[in-house]
Amino acid sequence: MAHLNSGRLNLSLLRDFQRTDLFALLDSIEGTKAIVWDQQLIAPFELISNIISFKEHKVVQNLKFGSVQWSMIEAQNVVYFIRPTLSYMDAIAEDIRASESNRNCNFHMIFIPRKCILCEKRLETLGVFGSFTSIEEYSPDFFVIDSDVISIEWPLCFRECNLEMDYSSLYQLAKSLMTLQCAFGIIPTVYGIGRLSKILFDFMNKMKSELISIENNVVSVIDQLILIDRSVDLLSPTITQLTYEGLLDEIYGINQTAIRLPPEKFITNDDDQTSAPAKKSQVGKFYLNSGDELFKKLRDLYYLRVGPVLRVSAKNLATQFDERRTAKTCESELLNCFEIDSINPFIESCIGRSVDIITVLRLILLQTVCANGLKQKTLDYYKREIVQTYGYQHLLTLNALEKCGLLRISNGYGMSYSGLRVKFRLTQESSKSNNVNVNNGDNQLSLYQGQVHDVYFPFTARIVQHIDQFGYRSFNDAFTRNNKPDPNLPNPNVVFEENQSTGNLRRRRNSDTTSMQSTSETNDKLVMVLFIGGCTFSEISALRLLSQKEGVNSEFIIATTSIINGKTFLQSIADTLSTKMKN
């Protein structure tokens, strides 16, 4: 984990705080312990500590929630690490009743990230609340993904905030930001883009009393905080990622830096007949982060720039897209506003061939955003064809997408993609149309410098670049001119600037101040970009590439509610139907 303190912020401090609080909580429970893990929490907690460290605190067993065999329990205490979900309380009550006939042990509950009164009431109703020796909460705040990436790992944030109007994730995000400022100082300047950004900042203001005690003790290390509501840029999650790391995520999925590769990827021609079957049963799990120097160099590169040796591997990744690979041409045409006002023949063909519904929805959503809404006739046609081809159950999916603003009718209001595309230079000619020969040396390969998609550069990254180079007012003017809010509805694309008092402790450039938070001295600003609703690996790569660009005098720390791709983003919105969607 040494790579975590290699950036401008020593993010290993956050991890150390998490470990200290976690192990103090475990040590407060006397005797041996068996932890029953909510399966969605296992991977995030691996970012805090490994299994060996848990053993040092008398944890003798780690079990998965829902598959506990009570006859195998050896510990004096059973500790549930669980998210506050009502349906889980029913299952836990059944566990406790089942354990009574096998053995006696003490039960403990640790809610992640905080207690829930409704869950406790449900346990009382089920008659098992008194079976718990203790019920506590543990809030990890930001999980440290890499030396410049942190996340609260709340993948349903976008759905909860836009469909259910549940802002629990924003409260947790605000709390995490306050903890961050306790460690690294108050962030003096805050910019916000989007409705959820304003709600988040209001939460932060209500929590400011927590900062009074440290306001005059910690030097400000982060210069600016830019809050970006995912709804401001709905294009980036729908477009095929073409960085090396982005491709890996699109094809295999990367979860909390871990990637699982199918076993056939490890069988070579040199394997004999006896060893090959054994390898087929093994799944390769690898961790991808800046601790691996080779991966650090490759991850943000456009897949055709990864070098002569790995270029073959990257091309093989790209060819595994099948329909998504063909869909890149359709994406390029839509992004360049080509025939966006009518039924798209390629999308129509995909539906007719029963192509993966996620692929179809990504393209339809892409067309919706590029056209600033679809004509009623076009939207009705797509919905009818999807229901007839994939089943009526997807009506709920389509309804959820409409409520989130991903699918909508053109009514003259909203953001004008065509105007933003020109003003913020969001697209370029396709690399295919340029007839680039990637074998002609560095001069030709330089054409791919800075690319993270085929023709598109993420709008979120352009927002950050514009604020950095031209200032907030210039961005506000350009953004407002291309945004026409519906007068009958609250403006979803509100933009604001706020200043937070830091006393006399603003960081001085190249000063003699020795701060445990900062690992380098530089004239560059340190800017935290926070995505509310998730961000993609391509957006992370775009910001890293921007920091290396001449004329950009900032380094970026990326914070997010979760890291997403097109598939996980759509499945989080329609999560009740995710099992019915084809993988």
Task: Describe the model.
InterPro entries: Sec-1-like_dom1 (IPR043154), Sec1-like (IPR001619), Sec1-like_dom2 (IPR027482), Sec1-like_sf (IPR036045), VPS33_dom3b (IPR043155). This is Vacuolar protein sorting-associated protein 33A-like protein. One of its GO terms (biological process) is vesicle-mediated transport. Belongs to the STXBP/unc-18/SEC1 family. This protein is α/β, with parallel strands linked by helices and 583 residues long. It folds into 3 domains: 139 residues, Sec1/Munc18 (SM) protein, domain 1 (Rossmann fold), CATH 3.40.50; 145 residues, Sec1/Munc18 (SM) protein, domain 2 (Rossmann fold, 3-Layer(aba) Sandwich); 137 residues, Serine Threonine Protein Phosphatase 5, Tetratricopeptide repeat. Strands 6-7-17-16-9-8-15 form a 7-stranded mixed beta sheet, sandwiched between helices. It has a 5-stranded parallel beta sheet with strand order 2-1-3-4-5. α7 packs across α8. The longest helix is centred in the N-terminal third of the chain and has 17 residues. The chain starts with 11 loop residues before the first helix and ends in a 10-residue tail after the last helix.
